[in-house]
Amino acid sequence: MTSAARLRVGVVGLGRLGKRHAENLAYRVPGAALVAACSPVEDELTWARENLPEPRLYDDYGALLADREVDAVWLVTPSSLHAQQIVDALQAGKHVFCEKPLSLDVGECERVLAEAARYPHLQATIGFMRRFDPSYRDAFDKIEAGVIGRPFLVRSQTTDKNDEDGFFVRFAATSGGIFLDCTVHDIDVARWLLGKPRAKRVFAAGAVALHEGLREYGDVDNGVAICEFEGGQLAMFYASRTQAHGNDTHSEVIGTAGALAIGRNPRVNRVEIFDASGVRNECTGSFFERFEEAFLFEAREFVDAVAGVDAGVGASLGDALEATRIGVALRESLLRGGAVDL
Ligand code: NAI
Asked: What is the pLDDT of residues 262-282, one digit of tens each?
């Protein structure tokens, strides 16, 4: 494909995840050309100069939006900035991919949906990449085919290996807390696998097992939650920042004629070790190791959707709004105690 025929993308935010998206867009998404990158941090721009194929570099988001040779922006910035940055991108005439969550505030989500409705020719997608993981996809297809009857319960967890450096303690100021940062994925998975029900009541509780620094943000390093949906379906969530064994993200769906477990053994590969301590396998170390393919497939699908071939797998802005609505209610339940009606 000639570069003129490719979607010209500018990536915004080159932190922990932004660098990964940038490398995918530069080298592994045939329909995309990574032409610009933006970060206010000089070290990150230096990384871009050394690792990306000569993108135009900006330290200011407004300047990137003014670049007429950028068709789409790829936001991998702090969650507290997403809503305004999406609105700015749409007003500048750019397609926009934005990492999850859409916003930490329901009113801000509604503002983005209203603005996006004014630009129906522009693609706007939120990165709930778990929908693109082959195993989650297969489970979705099996549910659609009726393999487990009528699904009525999802049990889903996002748990990270303990990071003694405490990245997420510093990150807590802008992450929205464990439910809006981590469980938001499980919320989206539950709604996706249960047929997009609307939540009616939630209850959450949490514990600080290791990272005392989270208390000043009203956050916890382990959280559990229950969500009741209007149609009678249920979801149970667990999120953790303190696992000893690695990133252990998995989900189960229970239906009237069977159940599916997705990734319940978080094995890094198919090797099993038989030794004096028994039989075991090694575990995925990080979310990126677990979902590397999913991040790539979601990028390819975004590019296809802009070209008019939309497989409809990704989360809509409406789905992302519902995920934030439930995540905000979980945080409220955690902070004030007791169930929260939606
Ligand atoms: P990070 O803190 O490592 O990176 C944030 C980046 O945004 C940095 O490059 C920073 O320089 C840049 N930035 C800050 N203010 C900016 C501004 N005004 N304009 C342009 N750039 C700005 O954070 P991380 O972990 O990369 O997370 C970024 C986003 O990705 C968050 O919204 C997070 O929720 C999401 N994320 C999603 C994951 C998933 O599983 N889908 C996993 C990890 C993060």
From this structure: 999 999 999 999 999 999 999
Distance CA 149, CA 19 (A): 41
- Extract the tokens encoding 18: 């932004």
Q: Could you tell me the two tokens for 254? A: 């229970």
Cα–Cα distance for residue pair 328/323, rounded to 1 Å: 9
Kindly report, residue by residue over 316-328, the tens digit of the pLDDT: 999 999 999 999 9
Report pLDDT digits (tens) over 122-162.
999 999 999 999 999 999 999 999 999 999 999 999 999 99
Reading the block at residue 222, the tokens are 């382990």
Nearest-atom index, ligand 1, CA of 39: 21
Q: How many CB atoms lie within 10 A of CB 94?
A: 24
The answer to whether residues 103 and 323 touch, using CB atoms and an 8 Å cutoff, is: no
Question: Using a 6 Å cutoff on CB, does residue 129 contact ligand 1?
Answer: yes
For 134-288+322-341, the fitting CATH number among 3.30.360.10, 3.40.50.1450, 2.60.120.10, 2.60.40.3360 is 3.30.360.10
Give the Å distances, CA to CA, from 316 to 28, 126, 270: 24, 7, 34
Count other Cβ atoms within 10 Å, centred on residue 301. Answer: 21
Given CATH 3.30.390.10, say whether it is the number of domain 3-130+295-315.
no
How large is the C-alpha radius of gyration of the chain? 20
The CA distance from 297 to 188, in Å, is 18
As a whole number of angstroms, the distance between CA 304 and CA 300 comes to 6
CA 293 to each of CA 39, 161, 251, 338: distance values in angstroms, whole numbers, following the listed order: 25, 20, 18, 39
User: Is 287 a pocket residue for ligand 1 (Cβ < 6 Å)?
Assistant: yes
Q: Which two tokens stand for residue 35?
A: 């032409």
Distance 296 CA to ligand 1 centre (A): 17
